[in-house]
Amino acid sequence: MSNAQLEIQLIAGLVAVACAIPGTFLVLRKMAMISDAISHSILPGIVVGFFITQDLNSPLLILLAALTGIITVVLVEYIQKTGLVKEDTAIGLVFPALFSIGVILIAKNANDVHLDIDAVLLGELAFAPFDRLIIGGTDVGPKSLWVVGTILLITITLLFLFFKELKVSTFDKGLAASLGFSPAVIHYGLMSVSSVTTVGAFDAVGAILVVALMIAPAAAAYLLTTNLKKMLALAISFGIFSAIFGYWVAHWLDASIAGSITTVLGLVFLLVYLFAPSKGIIAVMYREKQQRTEVSLLTFLLHLKNHDEVEERHVNHLYEHINWQKVRAKTVLDLAQKNNMIHIDNQVVSLTEKGDEFTSKAIDYIITNEDAQIEDMKDDFFLFRG
Amino acid sequence: MGNKSKENIKHSSPNDKTPTSAGVIAVKVDDLTVAYNYKPVLWDIDLEIPEGVLMAIVGPNGAGKSTLIKAILGILKPIAGSVTIYDKPYDKQRQLVAYVPQKGSVDWDFPTIALDVVMMGTYGSLGWIKRPGQKEKKAALEALEKVGMLAFKNRQISQLSGGQQQRIFLARALVQNAAIYFMDEPFQGVDATTEIAIINILKELRKAGKTVIVVHHDLQTVPEYFDWVTFLNVKKIATGPVKDIFNDDNLTKTYGINYQVSIQE
To answer: Which residues 28-57 of chain A have a CB within 8 Å of chain B?
Structure first.
């Protein structure tokens, strides 16, 4: 592996981490679309900043562009507050307007500006190692590595200092306000970090893919954990993995690095979406099937409890009485027998003591909706897990 | 923002002296007007809540009950009027106040556990940056115990029933160890057992000298649960001891229809 390859992977990895942190909070605040808006509308800021500084990695340019990001958020909120359009409409109005100003500015000055639309949309990660930072005659590495590294350091510091405030204002804005943690301050703080990160990542992965780096790792992590810190850690891990693995996919396929990273991100999310242990689509479908069976079981047990007549409890006629298909009746019968809830004498089904007790408790629960007495049943049966 | 409407609001408080006990006033609201998009939802409210009462705020939907609480707590900005907590502005008295928002106002799929939500109640006394430690955890566990939810401390919050979620919110307020508690419809969507558990805790708080203010919907239970009541419908209709003012006359004035339900048992 060459030095340049190593540097590209390092930059991609740091960008992924820097994006995953604000991305996690954006996902939890249901503000994923605002990152899309920011990533596009920083373009005029970048172009104007470039006219002034002539350097894509200048801190002034980054601040100017981040300011455009904040202006986007303010504009969206202002338009939304008039009550004339909804938030998604406001986003859809604001960012194309700002983005198009950027596009026109680039087109008008294409000759003397080292900036083109392709680079804006997809980034130029492969060229990142060529733009070196030289301090006192010594080469200390690619400029964008330093830029992204600095942004990441700031983000991590802020996360560490204000984790509690971010958490409480994301979960319960009203409580945060009443406790004296101004939700507006935290909101704009998060928006500022998101904007600065977007500008920093923009150079590497472009306007479109930076959105994927913010949202996809967090969305996947959300499906895997019920702990905010773990969610952050998972989002960061997914981001790093996708950045590194995506780089090598691009290498093997001789394709765009940013495109490959995003494809890997999409695949990671797809896998998690399918196979996440409790929130994944397969787990959910399995659970629903189990629940259907358990409801059937309960219906069946209830029928037995309510009917003393032998003819109502005959194995061969059961399905007629409860109006079930034979296959389903068989599944339910087997399940009840496996759990020792029924016994069968001469083809006639009766409740065992355990079955009787279970049925009473279950009915009690359904009627009173009280939890206490069925806590111990929850482990065995999906139905009662809410 | 609302500069021009501010001038339109007349500070006319017809001297309807609030009946108060001889004691201290915990919360005082003066000429409070709150508007959404310049349409007032609370109009010129004057209110004095004496220390140590367990007070219900009742009124029809859209009467501004939640808005009143939010404006008192500075969550919403009024376009006119002022609020004091023990004679000082709310900003100076945060530590004295605990707030239980409506259960439906938060996303219960948020990745966290019951204990952590209760710990959030301690954030106010910690202030910015400082992290909760063992002391805060102990306080949170005690509060969970009080509301009978200790066994659920590590349960993911989306896995709790509606009543359990409400108890968690109550525990979070208890942990603040405040002097004044504001609760927005704590009995909404909870089972009977939880309702009894909550009201018992509220009565205990009152016994300990705390002031408790509850947005309440079920008029039948007002005389049984509360000793003080405020009728609200955009304007304040009446406020005072339940035994003096909770009558068909005020109910009719508040709800607009001829209120026939007799509340005397």
So the answer is: 28, 30
A8: alpha, beta or left? (left if phi > 0; alpha if psi -120 to 50)? alpha
pLDDT-derived band at A369, boundaries 50, 70, 90 = low
- The 3-state DSSP class for residue B155 equals coil
Which residues are CB-contacts of A173 (< 8 A; sequence separation ≥ 6)?
A183
Architecture of domain A282-381: Orthogonal Bundle (1.10)
Single pTM value for the model: 0.85
Instruction: Give B74 to chain A, closest Cα distance, Å.
Output: 7
Which token pair is B137?
């955890």
Contacts of B106 in chain A (CB under 8 A): 171-172
Going from N- to C-terminal start, the domains of chain A cover 3-277, 282-381
Q: How far is A128 from chain B (nearest CA, A)?
A: 36
Predicted confidence at residue B14, as pLDDT, reads 35
Which CATH number applies to A3-277: 1.10.10.10, 3.10.110.10, 3.40.50.300, 1.10.3470.10? 1.10.3470.10
Tell me what the mean pLDDT of segment A213-239 comes to.
96
Cα–Cα nearest to B147, from B207, B206, B193: B193
Q: What is the mean pLDDT of each run of 10 residues along chain B (265 residues)?
A: 40 38 82 86 93 94 91 90 92 91 92 96 92 94 93 92 91 94 91 89 93 93 93 92 90 76 46
Nearest CA among A178, A264, A194 for reference residue A21: A194
CB A336 within 8 A of CB A355: yes
| Structure confidence by residue, pLDDT tens digits, A304-316 | 888 777 777 777 7
Q: Report residue B18 CA to chain centroid gap.
A: 19
CA-based nearest distance A170→chain B, Å: 9
> Between A349 and A280, whose confidence is greater?
A280
Nearest partner of B183 among B87, B55, B85, B50, judged by Cα = B55
State the pairing for strand pair B88-89/A132-135: unpaired
Alpha-helix residue ranges (DSSP H) falling in chain B:
3-8, 65-72, 90-93, 114-119, 123-126, 134-146, 162-174, 192-207, 222-225, 242-245, 248-255
Per-residue pLDDT at A26 exceeds 60: yes
- ipTM more than 0.95? no
| Residue A133, pLDDT score | 85
Neighbouring residues of B212: CB distance < 8 A, sequence distance ≥ 6: B53, B54, B55, B180, B181, B183, B202, B205, B206
Closest CA to A300 of A245, A250, A342: A342
Residue A12 CA, chain-centre distance (Å), reads 20
Contact in structure between B34 and B235 (CB atoms under 8 Å): no
The residue of chain A nearest to residue B73, with distances taken between CA atoms, is A178
Of chain A, the end-to-end C-alpha distance in Å amounts to 52
Strand-strand pairing, B228-233 and B54-58: parallel
**Partner residue opposite A178 with nearest CB, options B73, B106, B191:** B73
* Intrachain domains A3-277 and A282-381 with the same fold: no
